[in-house]
Amino acid sequence: MDNIGRFNRVADVSKLAGCNTRNVAYRWSIFEDSLKSIQAHGRALDFGAGSLRDSYDLALKGYRVVSVDMDEGLLSRYAAEYDWPVSKPALVAGADPIESLKKIADQKFDLITCYDVLEHLEDPVQVLRMLRSMMAPGARIFVTVPNGRTLFELGLRFDLLISRLTKRKLQPGEPHLQRKSPQAWVRIIESAGLNVEAHDMQIGFFVNTVFALVQMPMLLARRILQKLGINIDGARIASRICNETRMAALDRVDVATKPLFSPLYGWNLFVLSSTE
Question: β-strands 64-69, 90-93: how paired?
Fold first, then answer.
């Protein structure tokens, strides 16, 4: 955790272009390609804005941005981290996603980003329907969600069950409540009245699996040792074991075997349009 929040991505690349994770600099074109068909310099909603990294990139591209998340104070502190090209985005917060969206339900947007959000929600269909109602003609929704088939997601599901049994308090936004396969995510999307215009899988199987096999035991060991008064940085140790050189070699294997292993990749990337 950093000094202003748990999910600080200020120094990362915008998810419009990629993501730096598992010690691999992933880059993709699915969202940038879709931007060509969306009204330039229009209105954008960054839903689940977190540290505002994607809001900042949208502002640089000329969009007028509304950023939505749970904690307005945290959003304001993150906003101070950037040199905004014109003005800061409008910040909207609420105790839950539905409450936040109701505050701007009368507004329309040319682009809506929903990165790493739906897996945290009790009812992603309801939220997607609300987002669909806020789409201007020709608008698109960009979504990233994890693949529930991966070892990381299985581990997170186990951790959630243990947390509930032991009554360990989880921070807001921490647990993944949805563990869905790519096909199940498509069914959720379509039931909300949205079309999948484009879909890609990213974060390769070998990189993701090896990192999970190293990191998850380290984080568990850290939690156990803390109860004994011993502090270790499990995440840092895992990152050193899975260093950039080793992960780059595994990434090359992932690239060569993507046609075979893509159903087991870590993330789904979706471009969505409305059926109406």
Answer: parallel
Instruction: Return the structure tokens found at 75.
Output: 């959003």
**Residue appearing with tokens 């591209």:** 61
Question: β-strands 64-69, 18-21: how paired?
Answer: unpaired
Radius of gyration of the chain (CA): 19
Q: Which amino acid is at 77?
A: R
Q: Residue 176's pLDDT is what?
A: 82
Provide the CA 132 distance to its chain's centre, in angstroms. 19
Please check whether residue 263 is in contact with residue 180, taking contact to mean a CB–CB distance below 8 angstroms. Answer: no
Predicted local distance difference test score (pLDDT) of residue 1: 36
Give mean pLDDT, residues 2-14: 73
Cα gap 161→181, rounded to integer Å: 19
Domain ranges (residues) in the chain: 18-204+260-274
- Residue 170 pLDDT grade (very low, low, confident, very high; cuts 50, 70, 90): low
Class of domain 18-204+260-274: alpha beta
Nearest to 192 by CA among 274, 101, 255, 76: 274
Residue type, 218: M
Alpha-helix runs per DSSP H in 82-204: 97-102, 124-133, 151-166, 182-191
202, pLDDT greater than 80: yes
CA-nearest of 223, 262, 218, 261 to 241 is: 218
pLDDT in tens, 218-230: 877 877 788 788 8
Instruction: Name 27's bridge partners.
Output: 18
Taking CA atoms, 104 is separated from 67, 79, 143, 174, in Å, by 11, 20, 20, 25
Alpha carbon of 110 to those of 4, 26, 87: distances in Å? Answer: 30, 26, 19
Ramachandran category for residue 234: left, alpha or beta (phi over 0 → left; psi -120 to 50 → alpha): alpha
